[in-house]
Amino acid sequence: MSGHVTEEVEVDVKRSPPLHHNVENLSYVHKDQPKSQKLVLVLQALFPILEWGRDYNLSKFKGDLIAGLTIASLAIPQDIGYAKLANLDPQYSLYSSFVPPLVYAFMGSSRDIAIGPVAVVSLLLGTLLQKEIDPSNKVDYQRLAFTATFFAGITQATLGVLRLGFLIDFFSHAAIVGFMAGAAITIGLQQLKGFLGIKTFTKKTDIVSVMRSVWTTVHHGGKKNRKWYWVPAIAPLISVIIATFFVFITHADRHGVAIESIAIGRTFAAIKDYELDGNKEMVALGTMNVIGSMTSCYVATGSFSRTSVNYTAGCNTAVSNIVMSFVLLLTLLVITPLFKYSPKAVIASIIISAVIGLIDIKAMILIWKIDKLDFIACMGAFFGVVFVSVEIGLLIAVGISLAKILLQVARPQTALLGKLPMTSVYRNIQQYPDAIKVPGILIVRVDSAIYFSNSNYVKERILRWLTDEEEQVKANKQTRIQYLLVLANPERAVIDKLYTSGFANLIGDDKIFLNVADVVLAYAPKTEEP
Predict the structure, then answer these.
(1) Which terminus of the chain is more exposed, N or C, with fewer CB under 10 A?
(2) Cα 324 from chain centre
(3) What single DSSP character describes residue 381?
(4) Which tens digits make up the pLDDT trace of 6-63?
(5) CB count, 10 Å around CB of 424?
(6) How many CA atoms, within 13 angstroms, populate the side-chain half-sphere of residue 175?
(7) pTM for the full model?
(8) Distance CA 514, CA 521 (A)
(9) Phi and psi of 279, rounded to 5°?
(10) Where are the beta strands (DSSP E) in 462-501?
């Protein structure tokens, strides 16, 4: 009697990568072009504005002008608040909405993304830097902020040049949702200092430390002048209401969760049906931050709120970033001296209004319904930020995301296959109850590549199934399983390694088949009793 176990590997359809106009492809696609033409193509690859700028016209400029003015009106109040999160003066945040967008407009490939400081990055920068230097020491603190921005830009550009932009994909969406929600709550709690006029406030960001600081201030400071407490409070309250109203208007078209700059660009590129090269974007973002660090800017990136407004306002190209930059320049020249008079309560309300949309309850509920492990990643990042610190929350988010990937690699999905009635198709017997196991043949499919890290797990899984099958055979007096290893439909890379290693010769060429049906046809007759 004879039988076997087959491991079926699905054949992947290999698609050629899109031929973007990047430097890597130029030497191959345009190797026969004249040197002058190659130079033009290289410059266009580095500066996409040289390519799309040739077709730019007045009609497109009208849309970009309106969009640029719109996002500038949103950027000014946001930047003033975000500078506070980074423990910097307001003008430095405005600088970051002036220089980096100009650089990106020349080097970036997204037509819709709007560049500038964002709340979470500002908070993370401020939290990390104040542990090294007291923000009251402005000169040294600012120098450290610009140095951090420089190295952040170098890191981004290096990842792009080395084609390592895919590393961003290791940060799962679920972890981002949890991290952003936790960061929004942390940012909101930090605004209690300006909102309540507290002079002595904790430098820690966790909720316990913040609430202890607030409670201590209220308990000791509320004992004097209780009768007239509302007099100093009424002015900032009115300011808060007015400021919140105007900020709400500027955010009317904003929705969704803030995510990585490249993901933002891809989102809107998909809507407008054009390609976006993630590695080129990394180079552009890195270069703008390097240049920005030399012009008193701190870390800038793509903002989902500004990009949403930019898209809704009708932007056509990156010229909208240029328009915003010049509006910010005028702002810096005209009203910078007035920043010191900005009420802290108003700035706090602007920040709270800007980050409230980062808490996406619907996304959390959806993640819970779809994948419980993703939900654990989401909540781990959330509670890490809220109860410990922003950097710990970030580490938890990345750690859980990587742990899930490693778990999926080390414990790949495996399935027993059966034959669908009246067909030659074999499917998972758990997914298709009508699928019938072939007597004497155990068909196993591994739904993942087999690596050194999961080979033992796959072997143990197959042996466990063999043991279970043998017990059923003895109990029901069915045909025994006698052959262990026959391969069906391995892909080209697997076949090459089988022959290179000599394993194909060990098991024999007759043990490698095109599909499962051929295997069953070849071995099924041997399962009959003599």
Answers:
(1) C
(2) 26
(3) H
(4) 333 333 333 333 334 444 444 444 566 788 888 888 888 889 999 899 899 999 999 9
(5) 12
(6) 22
(7) 0.69
(8) 12
(9) -70, -40
(10) 486-488
